[in-house]
Amino acid sequence: MAATIDYTTSKGYKVKLQTGLFINNEFVNGSETIETINPSTGKVIAQVQAANKEDVDAAVKAASDAFHGPWRQMSSSKRAALMFKLADLIDRENEALSQVETLDNGKGITFSRNFDVKQIAITLRYFAGYADKIHGKVIDTDGALSYTRHEPIGVCGAIIPWNFPLMMLGWKLGPALATGNTVVVKTSEMTPLSALKVCELVVEAGFPPGVINIITGYGAIAGDALARHQKVAKIAFTGSTAVGRHIMKAASESNLKKVTLELGGKSPNIIFDDADLDQAVRWAHKGIFFNHGQCCCAGSRIYVQESIKDEFLKKFKEYTSQTKLGNPHDDDTFQGPQVSQTQFDRIMGYIEEGKKQGATCYMGGNRWGDEGYFIEPTVFTDVKEDMTIVKEEIFGPVVTVSTFKDVDDVLKMALDTDYGLAAAVFTKDTARAIDVSNRLQAGTVWVNCYNELDYNTPFGGFRQSGIGRENGEYALDNYIQVKTVKINVSRKP
Ligand code: NAP
Ligand code: MG
Predict the structure, then answer these.
(1) How confident is the model at residue 1 (pLDDT cuts 50, 70, 90)?
(2) pLDDT value at 353 more than 90
(3) Which of 81, 225, 426, 489 could be joined to 280 by an S-S link, Cβ 3.0–4.6 Å?
(4) 166 and 307, same domain (yes or no)
(5) Are 201 and 90 in contact (CB under 8 A)?
């Protein structure tokens, strides 16, 4: 049995932390340990067990045994009941899970409570509802009865990032379990603690051992072993485009496992001069600064129509200055620290690069406080479209503001990227909203809002932002394989 740790947060909340690898419904030791850091202070929270290749083998074996054993034999309605139960337990433990998420990731506690923890529960419930409604079709074929079965794939691997540790867990578990698969999830080395807390609830809910296995580990070791595993039938990855390429390569070099990828973005947010400007300012703020800019779909390129540029910037600065940056354990904190020293350095590097290339730092641009990884919300103006800060995903609280003349002008700039995850349009003109939405190359287009993610609408990328869709009914397709059964009635050979 791996150690559990009694931890007290800076605000006096007491919580039990699990540090093991969760395999076969037990917390076990791995081959080495990883330090998990509190990004608000830069100090170590706990040593967490880390998986090597043999540990990944053990997790995959557990998942494979469960898939061929109790999980396959269980009725779909019982499977759904377990998922509903887990969702209820997650809601019951909202406060503990929120505290752990905020401690390990640095997001504001109010967001952990009202968004992240609620999202995992609601996503599990949504997909639980599908568990007993997965079925094929009857197809009329001459002299034979043909029908399709929608069967599970087997052991599904999931590799998730650190920006929404619990929500990403829900996005992977929901469709995989509902369709009858078993899972091995590798969490990010940066944020392993909240998913391990969920594992306590997996046991309490009554899932058979091996159905859900959750391991911490380094990407290059545990992640790679999972992506290359011969007995993993599918891998779902969320993270950087660079690692996404690696996952596809690992799949092709091993057993051609099915791959879905949810990768990065550099999403344009287009604001026309007829938009409700106060609303557009608030949504644009949420678009870039929600989760400290650590969103794959962040609206990191704002395009404002020329005539409203000055007014937009003034209001945007005013609004941004009012939101609180500080201790994420305070109820009213909007922005906490970036997740790690590495991400902090990376973002500060982009800010320096922006200044060096001649952009104007209109607000922010500095470290905040003297411990932890806090960065002021940062706005660049006077940018050129070929600058690094306009081209590359920064994944932090940094936004560029450019101007445009008309629709063709802005679309030329908006489409000049290899990414295609999200985009937004602000206008009161419905015809223009529809026209621009149709012409944008993105998996999600928001009109007069931003960063509104729903568990029941598909999410994923055009171009190099990914392959496949998560959430909504579309997500189920990634976790089933279709079998045709043909029964001869009157055919002669
Ligand atoms: P990352 O390296 O892509 O990490 C995402 C996940 O992949 C983590 O669990 C990571 O493990 C794992 N991983 C890393 N190398 C791997 C490998 N060779 N094989 C298999 N799995 C591997 O992302 P990051 O380094 O944390 O962040 C870098 C950049 O990625 C960010 O700045 C941002 O641009 C982008 N990103 C995008 C998203 C998104 O939601 N689309 C999320 C996070 C990051 P470990 O972290 O444990 O090593
Ligand atoms: Mg990494």
Answers:
(1) confident
(2) yes
(3) 426
(4) no
(5) yes
